[in-house]
What does this fold into?
Amino acid sequence: MKDCELMALAEAARARSHSPYSNFRVGAALLTKSGKIYTGCNIENAAFSVTVCAERVALFKAVSEGESEFSAIAIVGGRTGETAPFCSPCGVCRQALAEFCPKDLKILLGNPEKFQAYTLEELLPYSFTEENL
Ligand SMILES: [Zn+2]
It folds into this structure.
């Protein structure tokens, strides 16, 4: 799968965001090593702490379906009605990804027309993993 195609799937997932409080819509598309894709969107709640980010929705969907090997995630986010310029994953999502994904996981940020690739290690250096326990 091309990076731009994964970004397009994240953009499509963004359309399903439930974000009436922040009006900040995020979509994610997670690619497994076997080529399957799991998407997610941010899902807010009137009780704010219940809110879940798009990246973790995608990740937990995949893990709950038995997936454990991932190669890339695309993330598209921005204010409702605006083209997403660049949306970086929050620290909680970076840590969640570190639990299941390799340090060289490709993380695509931007929008389908213009995006940049990073690795998980670049966005979360010195991560806390099972090796620290
Ligand atoms: Zn997050």
Q: What stands out?
A: The chain has one domain: 3-132. The first strand starts at residue 24 and ends at 32. Residues 32 and 70 are 4 Å apart (CA to CA). The beta strands are 24-32, 37-41, 70-79, 106-111, 114-119.
